Amino acid sequence: MAKGRESKPHIGIFGRRNNGKSSLINALAQQEIAIVSDVPGTTTDPVRKSMEIPGIGPAILVDTAGIDDIGDLGAKRVGKSLAALKTVDLALLVITENLFAEAEEKLIEAFRKQDLPFVVIHNKSDLVSLDDVLSGRLKDQYNAPVLSFCALEPDNLEQVIATLREMMPESAYKSQSLLGDLLQYGDLVVLITPIDSEAPEGRLILPQVQAIRDIIDNDCIAVVVKEKEIDALMRVLQPRPKLVVTDSQVFLRADASVPKNIALTSFSIMLARHKGDFENYLRGTPKIADLKDGDRILLLESCTHHVACDDIGRVKIPRWMSTYTGKKLEYDVVAGLGDLPRPITDYALVVQCGGCMITRKQIINRLKPAVEAGVPVTNYGMAIAWMHGIYHRAVAPFVKLEKTAEDYL
């Protein structure tokens, strides 16, 4: 499954082989988008399909292999199905013939470990009706909706979709404002956007576009400038900006050019507060100062992209960190949401990108093993600000007065 490329809410379809998971996806999407067969195990690796859900909007359906798959290859398929739990916001557990046993119980246990809301759907109810006793027991035991359904004759499709809408966490599809709580009507925000080898031809990178849209949505004014022109702009710009947001790579230049009475942060820190594990980033960032010779650092890029010679994650951050600490450090870079090359406990620090291409749930789950193991986590922009000596200024716009950045030192 191509992961880490969609920030839309994700709905995972789980259950035994031949329970009609793919048929359910086709019924929900009201089109033939998943391969349907009577042969058990037709769906192998998790497959993503796009659809529109009224009241939610665009969503991604994740079709998974059967949790009862057999053999060595089947075990690997089950493993991939369970790994998909880390990327979804809502799970559908598909059962048939009133069969609910250990496999389903273990799957619900996995849902709960991920704090994942779920709906139980008894499919193929035209062949065997949902047993009222089983339905009542599942509702009482798991406090989850249990619906009877027939994917081939989806008479109650609207009820299923309404349940999806009800159970989907609002945070998965109702995005909070990036900067709205910092701004008032008519405020001016300056965005410093370098155009370098990593900038896409003819357009801005996604965080910059997202910031512009958010500023406009909040009835404010966005002024976009390259770092080379910021000094000239600041000499003449009136009214004075309420906030300046810079690319983290030119933090030093921005800090020198923007008067200290004007709030300054970066696109990456903006995203860290918006969809990352900001509280743990605040705690983890100062740990950069404690790194020792031989420590290994994990850098997480949540999407894949062309690697330039001055790549931020693979080149610049390692260079800055080695220079700042004066230590001989080892670095691993993982793109996308794939497996790590070694146990999380082998790392002294995890540095997560802003995550503009993925959901908050995916970022939190990506970092969860590190947080649970006590491995400090930070964010690209916050790490860069720390190493450049402007950390407190950079996080100040987002840290409440009653809890300052120093409280996390």
Q: What Rg do the Cα atoms give?
A: 24 Å
What number of structural domains do the residues give?
3
| Total of helices | 14
The CATH homologous superfamily of the largest domain is called: P-loop containing nucleotide triphosphate hydrolases
> What sequence of helices (H) and strands (E) makes up the elements?
EHEEHEHEHEHEHEHEHEHHEHEEHEHH
* SS-based class: alpha/beta
Tell me the distance between the termini: 40 Å
CATH topology of the largest domain: Rossmann fold
Q: Kindly provide the name of the CATH class of the largest domain.
A: Alpha Beta
Helix content: 25-40%
Strand order of the largest sheet: 2-3-1-4-5-6
Ranges with pLDDT <50 over ≥5 residues? Answer: 1-5, 34-45
Largest sheet geometry = 6 strands, mixed
CATH architecture of the largest domain: 3-Layer(aba) Sandwich
Residue-averaged pLDDT, rounded?
Answer: 87
How would the global form be characterised? Answer: globular
Strand content: 15-25%
Number of DSSP strand runs: 14
SSE diagram, text form:
Layout (H helix, E strand, L loop, with lengths): L9 E6 L5 H9 L17 E7 L3 E7 L7 H13 L6 E6 L6 H12 L4 E5 L9 H11 L3 E3 L8 H11 L20 E5 L13 H12 L3 E5 L4 H7 L6 E4 L4 H7 L5 E4 H9 L2 H7 L11 E6 L10 H14 L4 E6 L13 E4 L7 H14 L3 E3 H8 L3 H5 L14
Parallel strand pairs: 1-3, 1-4, 4-5, 5-6, 7-8, 7-9, 9-10, 11-12, 11-13, 13-14
Antiparallel strand pairs: 2-3
Helix pairs in contact: 11-13
